[in-house]
Design goal:
425 residues; alpha+beta; Helix Hairpins; 2 domains; eight-stranded mixed β-sheet; three-stranded antiparallel β-sheet; 12 helices; 18 strands; 20% strand
């Protein structure tokens, strides 16, 4: 969300940012709309002031026995015109706010140019890709062969893009979430939160899912929405607040179910757990001062990388190009984990600095001690990690020739010392 005053003062900056994303320039259109709005606001204010003066003059004229017909006619005309102006101001305000709320964030200066994922820049890799003396399988074949993963049973009750995990795979998923939370809270200073899974539209507006991406959400008949990511409730914890600067940064983490309609993904990843309507994710959110947000982005990305490193899962880190970044992102790092069953890297985490883009929508600010002026906080979010994708990455990287799955060393204490997952007898 942008400040129209800032766009008026530097239209070229904003147009260049949108063009970097491959979008049309919008500054001229927005400024014209704002000028019309301000003209109508001025006309309304002047009309209201004149109505008050004329109404008072009518009373004074009548008290003196003077003719007030012209004043009465003028007030009558104003009483007709002012409601029209109020409606026009209201409509123009809503139109301008809607236009501003649908415009993507401006990319940071060091974000690469490009239209899609082909222009993302790889900045590092970690881990050795395992070699197998057999043909590695994809996770859905492994899980179904073990009898511990059923897409068919899930589809019978819920439709496509759902999965049912059973037995040791369900336990491993639970172990992953618990271990990730323990790591983030004990080592990286995140505070664990158990947030609501249902939120109102203003919460989704604050984190930029609404109004532009409504089709990606599941809406209930009560006016609530199922959260598409833990980012929504965690970031909204500071909604409409003024925070003391010395309390920043604030770091939150949560393990939540996430719900996405996957609109527009027809035909993509139709098998397996890559793209589901419901999945678990450990989310990281940071609320910080403006000057600290870039350091927090590196720190958050490091926290996500630590999870992959301790699981000994090979991965790479990419800086997303302007055309591939999310709507609210100022800069994004993607972590992609190696999946031997697919013989490729797939996204397992995105860590983004949104700058003050979300804070403006949420009215979330901070104030330094002794300072009357407030500033908008900067918000960051990242997956730490997507639990389902981490589970399938373990299955594919730790698969054994007999179809069993070795359990990573760090997770064995969470599995009561169990070292592998085999087909139940």
């Amino acid at each position: 969300m942008f400040d129209i005053k800032a766009i008026r003062e530097n239209p070229a900056f904003y147009d260049a940012g949108w063009q970097k994303r491959g979008l049309e320039p919008h500054a001229e259109e927005l400024i014209a709309l704002d000028e019309l709005l301000r003209a109508r606001q001025t006309e309304l204010q002047e009309g209201q002031a004149r109505r008050n003066v004329a109404s008072k003059a009518i009373g004074q004229a009548k008290a003196k026995g003077e003719n007030a017909d012209d004043l009465i006619q003028e007030v009558g005309a104003l009483k007709k015109r002012l409601p029209e102006l109020e409606e026009e101001v209201r409509n123009l305000t809503e139109k301008l706010t809607d236009r501003l709320s649908r415009l993507d964030n401006i990319p940071a200066d060091d974000v690469p140019l490009g239209e899609d994922e082909d222009s993302n820049e790889e900045i590092r890799r970690w881990g050795d890709i395992r070699s197998f003396n057999f043909e590695p399988k994809q996770h859905f074949d492994l899980g179904e062969d073990l009898g511990l993963m059923s897409f068919e049973a899930a589809a019978n009750m819920s439709g496509a893009r759902f999965v049912a995990l059973m037995g040791d795979l369900a336990r491993l998923e639970r172990a992953l979430g618990a271990w990730m939370l323990d790591t983030h809270t004990s080592e990286f200073g995140f505070q664990e939160v158990s947030p609501p899974a249902l939120v109102r539209d203003d919460a989704l507006y604050g984190t930029s899912q609404l109004p532009k991406f409504k089709e990606d959400l599941f809406e209930t008949t009560s006016g609530h929405f199922l959260i598409p990511t833990g980012e929504v409730p965690l970031t909204n914890l500071v909604r409409e607040q003024i925070i003391d600067a010395d309390k920043l940064p604030i770091r939150y983490t949560a393990l939540t179910d996430c719900y996405r309609s996957e609109a527009g993904s027809s035909g993509k990843d139709t098998r397996g757990m890559i793209r589901l309507h419901q999945f678990k994710k450990v989310e990281m959110v940071c609320i910080t001062k403006q000057e600290d947000s870039w350091d927090e982005l590196e720190r958050m990305t490091s926290a996500a990388e630590t999870i992959l490193q301790r699981l000994e899962l090979p991965y790479r880190v990419l800086t997303l190009c302007a055309g591939d970044m999310g709507f609210s992102a100022h800069k994004t790092y993607d972590l992609e984990v190696w999946l031997p069953g697919q013989d490729t890297y797939r996204e397992i985490s995105s860590c983004s600095n949104t700058g003050d883009f979300q804070a403006r929508r949420m009215k979330a600010r901070y104030r330094a001690e002794g300072d009357k002026k407030t500033s908008f906080v900067h918000t960051l979010n990242g997956s730490g990690l997507a639990v389902g994708r981490t589970l399938l990455a373990i299955m594919e990287n730790y698969q054994q020739a007999d179809g069993s799955i070795a359990i990573p060393t760090v997770l064995q204490p969470y599995m009561n010392g169990q070292t592998e997952i085999k087909k139940p007898c």
